[in-house]
Design goal:
Blueprint (H helix, E strand, L loop, with lengths): L1 E5 L6 H12 L3 E3 H10 L3 H10 L7 H12 L8 E4 L5 H13 L7 E6 L2 H9 L1 E4 L5 E3 L18 E2 L6 H15 L1 H8 L3 E5 L4 H11 L9 H12 L3
Parallel strand pairs: 1-3, 1-4, 2-3, 4-8
Antiparallel strand pairs: 5-6, 5-7
The site of zinc ion has 8 residues, from loops.
């Protein structure tokens, strides 16, 4: 299954992508995570990307497209993937179409757009905490860690993303509305779009998504085999 998750910052794309990756046995590919890893490594590329991310602007396409293209070429993405945070503009969507076509002529199966009102986005982002060591994510109110400030899974320290400050979030919402929202029409026109209400508990949102993926997910039990296969493809 080749899936795209769309939605404003903080809508729950990462949370849902992680649930689906377990269910479908395919990797979650987050452009934000890939970019933050490059920033963390302080490569010249990462330093350039950071200057855009800190302001809540989109990182230029030539940087992002290379990152995504090489990630899509990895073994574990052969059977499918869940793209989270990419594409973010019509130009990126066109580039994605070309990337998939050159790889065995594949195309997307579905685009899920999460809708969440602005005031809920601010609540979700201001409480978001991320682990410095693993990719785990928490929310101070909705999904608190057992010990404050400490990751349940690995004991790493939790931090508030620098670009999750209120002023930057406002700018990210503006960027979403101006540049990313047009993708709803773009994918609607291609008959790929399913708009999903992102309000409610993560499990409730997950159930709505799963209901629209009818026929695309492995049948009951089969997801275990799919997961084992994906794990073998990753070489572990
Ligand atoms: P969120 O989870 O809040 O939607 P992300 O982690 O996806 O945020 O992205 C964080 C930042 O990384 C964005 O504000 C932007 O600067 C950059 N970024 C992520 N994905 C892309 C992309 N596809 N194109 C350009 N910039 C991106
Ligand atoms: P995105 O990837 O779209 O930026 P995240 O998945 O990182 O969004 O979620 C943003 C924050 O909101 C996180 O702290 C997460 O724990 C929390 N969150 C995600 N889904 C829900 C939900 N359905 N209800 C309440 N909080 C949620
Ligand atoms: Zn952790």
């Amino acid at each position: 299954m080749r899936l795209v998750l769309l939605g404003p910052p903080g809508a729950g794309k990462g949370t849902q992508a992680r649930m689906l990756r377990e269910l479908a046995g395919i990797p979650q590919i987050s452009s934000g995570d890939l970019l933050r890893a490059a920033v963390h490594e302080k490569t010249p590329f990462g330093l350039e990307a950071a200057s855009y991310m800190d302001r809540g602007e989109l990182v230029p396409d030539e940087l992002v497209l290379n990152l995504i293209d090489s990630r899509l070429g990895a073994n574990d993405a052969k059977e499918g993937f869940i793209l989270d945070g990419f594409p973010r503009s019509v130009a990126q969507a066109e580039a994605l179409r070309a990337m998939l076509l050159k790889r065995r002529g594949k195309s997307l199966d579905k685009v899920i757009a999460l809708s969440v009102p602005d005031e809920e986005i601010v609540r979700r982002i201001s409480g978001r905490r991320t682990c410095t060591k693993c990719d785990a994510m928490y929310h101070l109110v909705f999904e608190p860690p057992k010990k404050p400030g400490i990751c349940d899974k690995c004991g790493g320290a939790l931090y508030l993303r620098e670009d999750d400050s209120e002023a930057t979030v406002r700018n990210r919402l503006n960027v979403y509305n101006a540049t990313t929202r047009p993708l709803l029409d773009f994918y609607g026109g291609l008959k790929l779009l399913a708009q999903i209400d992102g309000m409610g508990k993560p499990e409730e949102v997950d159930a709505r998504i799963v209901a629209t993926l009818d026929g695309l997910l492995p049948k009951n039990g089969a997801h275990k085999a799919a997961r084992a296969k994906a794990s073998r493809a990753r070489g572990n």
